[in-house]
Amino acid sequence: MGLYPVIMCGGSGTRLWPASRPDRPKQFIPLVGERSSFQETVLRAAPLGPLIIVAGAGHRAHLDAQLAHLGQEATLILEPQARDSAAAMAAAAAFIEARDPDGIAVVLSADHHIPDHAAFRAACELAAGEAAKGRIVTLGVKPTRPDTALGYIEPADPAAKVGSVAAFVEKPDAARAAAYVAKGYLWNSGTFVTQARTLLGELDTFAPAVADAARAAVTNGQSDGAVLTLGSAFLDAPKISIDFAVMEKTAKASVAPVTFDWADIGAWDSVLAASPHDAQGNSGAGPFVEAAGNLVHAPGGETVALVGVNNLAVVIQDGAVLVADLAKAQTVKAVGEAMKAAPPTKAPPFKTLVQARAWFDRWITLSALPLWWSLGADHENGGFREEFDLLGGNLPRRGRVQPRQAYAFASAEAAGWRGPGGAAAEHAIAFMEAFRRPDGLIPALTAPDGTILDDTAKLYDQAFALLAYASLGREADALAHFSRLDVLRHADGGWREAGDKPFYANPHMHLFEALLAWDTLGSDPRWAGAADEVATLCLTRFVDAEGGFLREYFDQAWAPAAGDPGRMVEPGHQFEWAVLLDHWGRARGNAEAQRQARRLYAAGLAGVDARRGVAVNGLWDDLSVRDGAARLWVQAEYLKAAITFGDEAEILRAARAVSFYLDHPVPGAWRDRMDETGAFDPASSPASTLYHLVSAWRLLCRK
């Protein structure tokens, strides 16, 4: 009987503001003891079987760091967007069933406090015996008090070690909570033990859209070692909890009563209850004078003295202070929700283009370029690192990064930067050229010492080699490299990309960018001919004639791909193609191309979220939001397009969108991804973004 502990890492913890925030939710911060509740859950669950963790893609850095600190390994299932507990559990169940048809999932929350690990595991193993018979077993905690913040379970037989559930009851008021405790009801712990196929079968019956979306998301997800990023089908799952979707409807629900200490660390009163405290019930460093029942949480080392007060929570973290009556601990959620919904506020309030240009010029020339040459470049092995990481990481390097860095530095020098732009560009190109494939094409991935880890030749990467050569004026090298792309030619026009989606617009866009650069700089007529070919392919195939937007994926006849891939629209790519088509249209005197460029710009603007002031990552072909997160490179392309097509107000809005991300502890580094709440993911700065930022800076400030 294979057990698979599944740790659910969802939830934003708004009732634990300001310690818990969207970019660092409660499960990843130490609230009771020195470890986070996620780490304690990992240690509690790991002896049961192979760990599986379901979490948002934006929390990958937290997961990796905290698992590494414990020396634990796990399979990560990453959600592109939170869809509530039913979809998360369904995805884990589909993953388990595909590998072990009889596998039993032990689903537990990452934010629960259970000091007795052995008692917890014993209860799970007892429940697993019943789960093997086709039951969905939940652990019901015997209450120690009436609690209005918890759900309850009415057991059919209170004396049974594992028995049927008579009813699930939502959070009651105080009177009902007391009555439930008197009648022998149990707290609903949110821990479920069930065969994966049993859970999926009940979802098929009661919430089939959830089950279908989860299976498709697992099947079509992207695997990278022990990490599965769920496919876009996951976004089709209805947002519904497992209690509403299944547990309140199924006839297969059982409950195993348990007596170990348990707490749902959901608010500051529960943190106090689970924490060590003095004789007067105070927890924290203090001092406490004539004070009782207070909690102080100040991990920054601040001294907090409480005198003559009772039942207060005083929390100081990251420049924010909370003082709350612990009787109103649940109400803190209103503050957390308000802060979560607030857009970023630290970006410079540009009022004129002169201000914006001066600010960006200083940031690029005095911070970004010097930082990336001094610390982003690998002066020992050659080339540039994949990302800027305060911890000094040195990841494998994608083939596109070296030519992108070469272009960024060479074009910065051409625009008047007085730093070593040419030397930095040659440093990057030398690494790229030293570790090519035998046929001269650029491999997809190398180790820091140049060892080829993935020799796939991607059209995307080759396009940047051509662009880098353009920035250095090396036409002979560019022509030789361009001829090597013949192996990627497609019989119906254009080029094929490597991988399972070979008919892809985006690599053509970067090829178009390089061809246009050579059309201006070079002497060979092949540049103009190839640029015209890509422009024609874009106007006749990539762009939806009726909707005026550009699709991403196609079939071999350059018709929109079937299913979700053919419906994907990326605002950032609308902006990029719009600027390039306008350039080509002006050079060729093609008014239709210029008109279509403006339509693409309008499609990109449909992805600008007015509340956050940023362009989102993805839309569907009806221009509804597909991926509400927002990466920095998209904002840089928004700025370029606004400069090309927009008025001063739009340019200033786009400039402010970019500047949100540049508020970083290290001047010259950046935040990469803003989530749907306006918070930034705790990730390193990817080197590849410098290309977008330098391009936007040149258009805004230097030409």
Number of domains: 3
Largest sheet: 5 strands, mixed, barrel
Q: What is the spatial order of strands in the main beta sheet?
A: 6-9-7-8-12
CATH topology of the largest domain, by name, is Glycosyltransferase
Morphology: globular
Uncertain residue segments: none
- The DSSP helix count reads 22
| Relative helix content | 40-55%
Beta-strand fraction estimate: 15-25%
**Mean pLDDT level:** 92
The CATH architecture of the largest domain comes to Alpha/alpha barrel
Spatial separation of the terminal alpha carbons: 66 Å
Question: What's the gyration radius in Å?
Answer: 28 Å
Tally of strands: 29
Please identify the top-level CATH class of the largest domain. Mainly Alpha
Helix/strand/pairing class, anyone?
alpha/beta
Q: Tags for this entry?
A:
29 strands, globular, Glycosyltransferase, 3-stranded mixed beta sheet, 703 residues, 3 domains, 5-stranded mixed beta barrel, Spore Coat Polysaccharide Biosynthesis Protein SpsA, Chain A, alpha/beta
